[in-house]
Predict the 3D structure of the following.
Amino acid sequence: MTTVTEEDLKSLFARLAEAMTREKDRLCELDGVIGDADHGIAMELGFAAAAKAVSELDATTADPTLVFNTAAKSFLNAVGASSGPLYATALMRAGASAKGKTSLNDDDMVEIFAAFAKGIQDRGKAEVGEKTMVDAWAPAAAACRAARDQGLPLAACLAAALEAAQAGAEATKDMIAAKGRSSRLGERTLGHMDPGAASAVVMISCFHIHFTS
Ligand code: ADP
Ligand code: MG
């Protein structure tokens, strides 16, 4: 059984920030095709701000909920693009899901993953098939929970989530954007991966690596 502490979460945010810096250009390029080319910048700024803010929390008093809530607030403040409120809501939901716990076990982490994904859907009102990050997050959360229901450990649940997210992101190439900025392009979005779905895969692969090693 995994035991995730607020320290583990702080280093997860540092990992997410590093990954977004690495992937910034690719994400901006994807957004350049069907959006306004800023998605990589938004994700880098958001996670850099979140990682910095959580690293400054007092380790003697911070709990997982405070880490998620602090990350949410700084992500929102740093990001003007639509991914700002979407991920801020997701992070707040993660914080609510962790409420009252000083450390998190496999079941808690799977619940947090599900709450995070649901937060994105509640905030943005996108359904699967509308060519958004939901096309990666929703199947990933479902796969994560299904794996846990079969009794698999967290690392295997996150491996299943990653595989589902990758398939979901790939599937956005065959979709016409129905939500957000790229919906204005209609059929011209066909053939291109949604940038938000691509960054969701980056995030989920960070979760997977973080809780496997
Ligand atoms: P903006 O479109 O404001 O420039 P970003 O470039 O940061 O914001 O993010 C674009 C991504 O946001 C899209 O690729 C899509 O995945 C996601 N997105 C946009 N609108 C929604 C929504 N209503 N629900 C879920 N995701 C959305
Ligand atoms: Mg954009």
